[in-house]
Amino acid sequence: MSLRELAAAGGVRVGAAVSETVFDTGDETYCSLLAGEFNSLTAERAMKWMWIHPEPDRWEWAANDGLVQFAESHGMQVRGHTVVWPHWGTPPYITDCDDAAALRRHLVEHLEVLFAHWGGSVARVDVVNEPLHWLEGRLADSVWRSLMGDDYMAEVLTLAHDVDPTIELWINETHNDIVPDKHELFTKMVADLVERGLPLHGIGVQGHQLYPDFSPAPPTPERFHQVVNTYADMGLEVAVTEMDVLAHPTDSDRLDVQARIYGELVDAALSVEACREITFWGVSDAHSWVDEHFGPDRAPLLFDREGQPKPAYHAVAAAFASRARRTPTG
Predict the structure, then answer these.
(1) Domain coordinates of the chain in residue numbers?
(2) May I ask the CATH architecture of the domain 3-326?
(3) For the chain, first and last CA: distance in Å?
(4) 24-53 pLDDT per residue, tens
(5) Residue 330 — very low, low, confident or very high, per pLDDT cuts 50/70/90?
(6) Is 136 a catalytic residue?
(7) 65 has pLDDT over 50
(8) Alpha carbons 137 and 73: distance in angstroms, whole number
(9) Rounded CA separation 145/142 (Å)
(10) Cross-strand pairs, 77
(11) Which is the catalytic residue, given 20, 37, 44, 130?
(12) Of 23, 188, 217, 306, which sees the most CB atoms within 10 A?
């Protein structure tokens, strides 16, 4: 069975991040794997503010529409990514804004046009992405925080919900599974939003495992389960939204180690009933953001450069099969 079939049997989504540039290469193997193995799609960059709305009066819809059309043609759901991102992906007319009222107008206009264009074709959106510092337990500095205050996420959620109350609004964060003080602060922030009744549907735990190039070692399965369950206990849906695991070239058994990490962490997440999605940040090693940042020999995904399944694929498939066996539909 494909990952897509196993996920459907367990009542969950299995997704992949997709760069619109890959479609331009005509890589038929990539497109076949995407359609055959996944039932959810995330735009790697096509829906980020910088690419889709680079100037106040200019929208670039082609890449967005191509991904949505592909998803609709192959029975896939679409995860929108992302609206507010303090770190990156935001055009200068936003980052250079020095007036709070003007920033709010830009945000509302962006949400109105974006959500109207989607017209229900995008089921959920990471409306705020990475509000905290990458590896520290503190808020990231940004124009949103400086002009709208530390509580800007509450306002973003409210404004987005007012524009379209039918779309699921998510907050997506990275490395809160491996940086304890970051997890502690993020948990307090999310709990506060929930207690105040803000329109928050779910939390994305990204799941990038970039050890040893950038981040601490991967969490234990018990720790990963605990982190995912933290937000489930608040009544929220949870997803692992951007998973990849580096297979470091210095490890002689790197693909087996990678498979163990993938299998243990995916199984730990899916053992939480409220975890309804696992999305990998790419389809195959032939096209990955990791190459540019850490080198071309980290092999971070489930399929190799030729599109063949790696040991990690089989470990992940086993985890999805376990979820399916635990569900009534499975």
Answers:
(1) 3-326
(2) Alpha-Beta Barrel (3.20)
(3) 13
(4) 777 899 999 999 999 999 999 999 999 999
(5) very low
(6) no
(7) yes
(8) 42
(9) 5
(10) 40
(11) 130
(12) 23
**Amino acid at position 240, single letter:** V
Task: Look at residue 250 in the predicted model and tell me its pLDDT.
Answer: 86
Q: Structure tokens of 239?
A: 């997803």
Give the whole-angstrom CA distance, residue 169 versus residue 155. Answer: 12
Per the annotation, the verdict on 130 as an active-site residue is yes
Return the structure tokens found at 233: 């206990």
Residue 294 tokens read as: 């850490």
CB environment 195-219: b (16+ within 10 A), e (fewer):
eeebbbbbbbbbbbbbeeeebeebb
Q: Which residue has the tokens 């229900």?
A: 120
Catalytic residue among 20, 37, 242, 264: 242
CA distance 31 to 27: 7
DSSP per-residue string spanning 99-146: -HHHHHHHHHHHHHHHHHHHTT---EEEEEE--B-SSSSSBPP-HHHH
| pTM for the predicted model, two decimal places | 0.96
pLDDT of residue 25: 79
